[in-house]
Amino acid sequence: MSRATGPDRRINPYRDDIAAAYLRGEVKAGRFVDGEDRQVKLPCVPLLQRPDADAPMDTQLLFGENFRAYEEKGGFAWGQSAHDDYVGYVDAKALAPHPYKPSHVVAALRTFVYPRADLKSRPATPLALNAKVKVVGAKGDFSEIERGGWVFTAHLAPVDAFVRDFVSVAEEHLGAPYLWGGRESTGVDCSGLVQASLERAGISSLRDTDMQEATLGERLPEPIDFTTLARGDLVFWKGHVGIMVDAERMIHASGFQMRVVVERLDIAMARISRVAGHVTTIRRLPRR
């Protein structure tokens, strides 16, 4: 976004009446505040465009992720995700004060928080891939986590332990339903699938497709030689992205099939071109 229109409001917390203190001198606002760090205490929380339960969802916040709240009013906190800088409104009741420092993340597609270290006890809370927890104890096959409950230890990984192949993480989502703004396996969109998969590989990613296209990896030369594509290449259209699983097939969260699918790139290109135009870029991440 040009300086004439100011920083991108999606990832810079400012409005006419209030802004983050770190934006002082860059934007105009009625007042500047430092904000307060809070932490998501529910499994998954929508980040909304407006302080209204019926407002469109831009993205989601997962259990254990931090959120810097700059304002709380009418039951909603307005602020910024510490995960990917996205700005929006969150139900204030979903946030806890005094965030803990996570020690582990959920490494399985989904898991549960149990009331006891017993797989036969009735689980109270589902957790998604990449949810953040702090392990405070262990018993048998389970880990006790901060704020109560037990998680199957094999479903967790230390925060600094990553997978090598992010495409394999995307493939675990095969068949997951499409959800605009979704970041986890009960509902995920195209850029959310890319972001979640890269996170498990230790690669930070912004949220929306245009942001990812501008920042991830290196752009392949044009005109694009589609015969040279490889596993892990990111294929971008205006408003859409997919991940190559090999030289010919792509996995993506498809709004046409309304689920995560693997299909031949040439077939997807022919269909998507009728809605979003032709492929805009191919981005290649560093090989690991």
Automatic annotation (TrEMBL):
Belongs to the peptidase C40 family. SUPFAM superfamilies: Cysteine proteinases. GO terms for biological process: proteolysis. It comes from the Bacteria. Residues 160-286 form the NlpC/P60 domain. Pfam families: NLPC_P60, SH3_16. It comes from Parvibaculum sedimenti. This is Peptidase P60. The lineage of its organism: Bacteria, Pseudomonadati, Pseudomonadota, Alphaproteobacteria, Hyphomicrobiales. Keywords: Hydrolase, Protease, Thiol protease. GO terms for molecular function: cysteine-type peptidase activity.
